[in-house]
């Protein structure tokens, strides 16, 4: 296979995996061709991989010992001692993370392919430090504030800020997950802080859905380095948020939002050809249609009827997904020729 054919095959594979925007295929061609020509593939030495494994194992032993110790003595400690232990743990983790950054030659060098091991290890350390900081802030605020929901929200936001700072130093999927968990935790506590009676599952779902949409917008703008992971996280948040109003007094909001998520996901797939959007569209439509029919018929379809409708909907959604995938392939295949003609 010639270099040109190999380049086109690699670029096509990147687009199909959702790692490259089809509109930038022309820019990617010379980059991939140069990489193939000069053989820039980086092999991680076994010694470095073993060092990474040793770091994880050592960290697991430390965490296990801490959990064992604190599990038996935590209630005997004063609030100041509890907060102090968490803060010291966070500082130790941050210090260890920056030692790893220093051995790599700085944060910029940490992002190079040959430093992937150190990047992952640093991300784990800094994300764990963000979790310790969040718990420490939460314990302290719960003691000094009368509004517990507000205290939990502020603690979650502190963890979110720390996780995002850690992500800026060492961007990995672990940092994304830590940030997503902190942002998600801040939503129900924030709703509780804003209303003494709570604003209900409907608003909770809408805000989680909005978080997912914002996550996806950040992904498509390139703010998250791990594009595939960001799309999966964003789609998961959007789908979960759309389903949360299902337990409300009026469950119609759940299937309406879920159907909207499905349509938007299919539209995003046509633009990006990223499989998380296609999978989300199929799942969302498959879930929304039976929920709507069950609500409209007041549950008279029964279990067998719902199962049948779900199966038919899944089949139709899968066929629609295959059709959209074929159209996306045709658009990509005809794109370069079309641009050449124009």
TrEMBL record:
Transmembrane portions of the chain: 53-71, 83-104, 124-144, 150-170, 177-196, 202-219, 228-246, 252-270, 277-294, 300-322
Keywords in alphabetical order: Membrane, Transmembrane, Transmembrane helix
Keyword Membrane: yes
Keyword Amino-acid biosynthesis: no
Protein name: DUF2157 domain-containing protein
Organism field: Nocardioides mesophilus
Taxonomic path: Bacteria, Bacillati, Actinomycetota, Actinomycetes, Propionibacteriales
